[in-house]
């Protein structure tokens, strides 16, 4: 068996960013924490913590933390008479930023756990699952990674939006290759491909578009509303601004539908059944079929 | 002189995540991009790009990208008759998530640049400046890093909030050590120390509090409003919910004021003067003195 006292110390250090904070959380001395980690590292022959500050987990360290979380989660679903030992159950999930900003959050009330959310864009949330660092993920990738199932949830519809002033200034003759090469876009981060995909739909070509990088969903939408650029925004986030005329579609005839899937580790699926049911229910209500 | 064609290729690869996308953006072939990077790496004797996918910058690669951005920015402030060569000016800034979610965004309209925002928590945004990866940062750290100036902006006031139901369930006898050890908090990420600092103010002790990790400002506030936990929320984000009675302070007498500073590289300060003026103005209007 693994040394779960050492794993608990490891997880606390990674979640809290220092040996001292982990020691305080566990009610032991920092040197006890340090010895547990050192012992674990020696047994495994690998570094598990980058000492920092802040202290962060190595790839193997993060995998071990995830293993501990899963064991605790499984323990928490044992009969209530068997009180799970060793701390509250933590569920680590990867969620794409736009789902977190729109429909996802209320599903977390389905299970009385502590959640540790990792936020990434929809095309990459599944990578966290592949690396064994989360137990479930909301992602646009349809193909499950080994040991996981993927459940189709529906489509999130994106619109290419800008302010009326921005459209008058940069797109006086409509959406053309020339205008797209000049008009700044708002882009979530370097991995975000939604703008390029829409540009390809609109022009039939892969174009370079200049852009601001704003890696947070609501500020992204507000940057569009401030006239800093055009951007791909989920229709549910833009409703009010569209109705008030503060934003308009560049091409009302050209939305972009992104399918979303709930990827869940098969070993965890029974324990997570209430969460899966809630995710299906919310998605059915808020996404397009 | 540095090879700026190679640096431009480097920056495009890091911003776009692949050699192919960088080549398309620069209008050259992928093999030309690849040769430029190889040549630069050989001359410097260092790897500049982790090949991925996605392709990401090494520490040195990121520093070189930042250097290019600064040269372009300085070029863009030359007399308008000298058209800057080699792409639009990009300004990379580190901003704490709560500033981005509240007062910061409109300042970006002060200069006609492309912005590349890095989001971190207020205690760590300055680290990006120290590593030479950004030209400016909004941070709670008062001491400037070498080569930079720090300008005091005022205080962001945080309140420890929860729903009335949550308070009735977890804090029936007020905020005690025992209740704080049981009631789940909402925590931004492993580096976020606001909850611990407030707990120390409230109890005089450093306590371990259990918590959910939700690394996005608006979802963080909504998680509190959904009753998932208590959390430290900027008063300006909570106004509506407080007035409507959906959230309440755990201790109305105990806000936590976090001072914010604009850190800016001295070499860039003249070029960024209009941005600095707008940041001062917005901060004076939206933060507490």
From TrEMBL, chains A, B:
User: Quick check: keyword Signal in the entry?
Assistant: no
Domain HTH lysR-type, residue spans: 2-58
Q: Give the record's keywords alphabetically.
A: DNA-binding, Transcription, Transcription regulation
Give the transmembrane ranges: none
GO MF annotation terms: DNA binding; DNA-binding transcription factor activity
PANTHER family, alphabetically? HTH-TYPE TRANSCRIPTIONAL REGULATOR ARGP, TRANSCRIPTIONAL REGULATOR
Protein family per UniProt: Belongs to the LysR transcriptional regulatory family.
Q: Which NCBIfam families match?
A: argP (TIGR03298), PRK03635.1 (NF002964), PRK13348.1 (NF009888)
- The name this protein carries in UniProt is Transcriptional regulator ArgP
Q: Which organism is it from?
A: Paracoccus kondratievae
Q: What is the lineage of its organism?
A: Bacteria, Pseudomonadati, Pseudomonadota, Alphaproteobacteria, Rhodobacterales
């Amino acid at each position: 068996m693994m040394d779960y006292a050492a794993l608990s110390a490891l997880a606390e250090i990674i979640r809290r960013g220092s040996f001292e904070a982990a020691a305080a959380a566990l009610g032991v001395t920092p040197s006890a924490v340090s010895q547990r980690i050192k012992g674990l590292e020696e047994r495994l022959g690998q570094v598990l913590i980058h000492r920092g500050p802040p202290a962060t987990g190595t790839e193997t360290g993060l995998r071990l933390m995830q293993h501990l979380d899963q064991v605790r989660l499984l323990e928490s679903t044992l009969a209530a008479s068997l009180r799970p030992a060793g701390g509250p159950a933590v569920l680590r999930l990867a969620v794409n930023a736009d789902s977190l900003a729109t429909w996802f959050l209320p599903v977390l009330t389905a299970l009385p756990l502590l959640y540790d959310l990792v936020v990434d864009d929809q095309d990459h949330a599944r990578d966290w699952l592949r690396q064994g660092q989360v137990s479930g993920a909301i992602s646009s990738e349809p193909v499950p990674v080994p040991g996981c199932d993927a459940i189709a949830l529906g489509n999130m519809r994106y619109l290419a939006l800008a302010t009326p002033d921005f459209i008058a200034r940069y797109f006086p003759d409509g959406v053309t290759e020339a205008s797209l090469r000049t008009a700044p876009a708002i882009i979530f981060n370097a991995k975000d491909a939604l703008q390029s995909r829409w540009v390809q739909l609109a022009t039939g070509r892969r174009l370079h578009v200049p852009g601001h990088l704003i890696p947070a969903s609501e500020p992204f939408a507000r940057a569009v509303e401030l006239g800093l650029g055009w951007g791909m925004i989920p229709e549910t986030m833009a409703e009010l601004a569209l109705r008030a005329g503060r934003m308009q579609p560049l091409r009302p005839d050209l939305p972009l539908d992104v399918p979303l899937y709930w990827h869940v580790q098969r070993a965890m699926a029974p324990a997570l059944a209430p969460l899966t049911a809630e995710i299906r229910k919310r998605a059915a209500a808020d996404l397009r079929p």
